[in-house]
Amino acid sequence: MVLALELVGTFAFAVSGALLAVKKGFDIVGSLLLASLAGLGGGVIRDVMLAQGVPTAFGAPLYLIPVALAVLVVFVRLIREDRLRRTLLAFDAVGLSLFCVMGSFIAYEAGLNPVACVLLGVTTAVGGGALRDVVANEVPQIFNPDGVYAAPAFLGAAATTTALELGIFNAFAAVGIAAGIFVIRFLALKFRWRVPLAVLRPGPVR
Amino acid sequence: MVLALELVGTFAFAVSGALLAVKKGFDIVGSLLLASLAGLGGGVIRDVMLAQGVPTAFGAPLYLIPVALAVLVVFVRLIREDRLRRTLLAFDAVGLSLFCVMGSFIAYEAGLNPVACVLLGVTTAVGGGALRDVVANEVPQIFNPDGVYAAPAFLGAAATTTALELGIFNAFAAVGIAAGIFVIRFLALKFRWRVPLAVLRPGPVR
Amino acid sequence: MVLALELVGTFAFAVSGALLAVKKGFDIVGSLLLASLAGLGGGVIRDVMLAQGVPTAFGAPLYLIPVALAVLVVFVRLIREDRLRRTLLAFDAVGLSLFCVMGSFIAYEAGLNPVACVLLGVTTAVGGGALRDVVANEVPQIFNPDGVYAAPAFLGAAATTTALELGIFNAFAAVGIAAGIFVIRFLALKFRWRVPLAVLRPGPVR
């Protein structure tokens, strides 16, 4: 079950990487690299932080299948890039929702304290997308003030950690929280929800 | 004592991250993420290199307090952003001075050889700021040839490692070295000190 | 022998870093940092993934010698920067060829499965150059669709892993595979070989 959700999340983020490769005019090998970074980067950062040996993305070849599949479906245009921005955002949101839940769960299993579980959930969720955007020389999605992005990941990681602490976390809870986070992210994009800027009443910047 | 200096350095770098978030027009969640990267990134890289389990920034929730505080003081404009560039540079310099000392000290405690202690001091000092700038899609401060930046960090890391080897390192030495490095960085900015360019007598670039 | 090839590869990538520092107008300390990232970054990422303690680049001060040497030869213009782009590409290609072989070999020695060995060979080969370009705020070489870049690294890592599995890997094989990969990269640049783009029949991007 854990594995299934991880693989779906990996596929979703990998599609977002392959679509960004299309947008930037990269070739198919670049698409494979960017899809790998997006799909596996968050999990690799999480595993390095947990310091429990070789990251699962390297240890288990299984994780390459959703990445290769993502590159393929984008290449043959099964996932069309002609409404590129919206499609990219949708797949990115699926990955975000699943990875904030899985990241917190895996950190909890590794015995970390609840605060660290929330932090690692957020890191797993935003890490892959941040790597994808930074390596492609774009300002990361996480910093786009149109619509909230990291805030739902915080929420999902906190809900997962709370459920784990209360002993009520299971497969249904995992899918439920992820679905809730996806809806929040979707509504945030549709209605252009915003969180306050980094400063109250900003003056002219010098 | 070690902890106190770490927390002050974290606060200083976190302020630099929150101020950069203001400059780039990010929202408060983006400010939190950029402040975390700037304040905790250098220490996390150091801990990953030392390979001694979960990085302290994740293991000890205490480290989040200076980050949250930094975002808050920037948000309510206790630290004003209207002389933004200068304020950002000042907080960045405090973080740089403290982290080159702390990075070398922690590497020494972990039993690394002196050369590695110097390298890890520099890495700790410039790592957080580099992550902050790279993720915000700016050319990192470390590469700005106006005023020296990494050179004082080298100096501070070398002085700390020497003091440790001679057995004369203590809390006073730590604060003394950090203060000296801050003054050097400050003078370098004020008088526009420069180190030689990467090439002797540069010709036209093709 | 392993060490010798590692040091030559480190020197080659470090030269590419120092030349990029010249191109970007950085000073000599920036050149040292960028040369370190380019020369040592791929190996450090590999060692962190292998989770076998402190990365060799930090544990063994010997690795700093090729980096310092690279910065020096660029500084005194022994390696001229007046045909900058071509020289940079040549040194980058030497590093790429050696590191895809060494990365796979070291991963194999660490007991990883063959797929992971190929992945880590590619990661070692493209990691340092990617860090170099990302930190200098350039679109990484790996994504340049003019001439193939990551594809030869895949080929070299796959050839090395196959040779290891068949028990026919030795110093001659290592140098032979690296030379073959260098020639392929060279021909790819000269004759502007291309791999297909990330999408079949790309339409206008929206």
Automatic annotation (TrEMBL), chains A, B, C:
Per UniProt, subcellular location reads as: Cell membrane
One GO term describing the cellular component: plasma membrane
Membrane topology per the entry is: Multi-pass membrane protein
Which residue numbers delimit the Glycine transporter domain? 4-76, 90-161
Q: Which residues cross the membrane?
A: 57-76, 88-108, 168-188
Keyword hit for Ion transport: no
Q: What InterPro entries would the database entry show?
A: Gly_transporter
**Keywords on record:** Cell membrane, Membrane, Transmembrane, Transmembrane helix
Major place of localization? Answer: membrane
Q: Which family does it belong to?
A: Belongs to the UPF0126 family.
Q: What is this protein called?
A: UPF0126 membrane protein
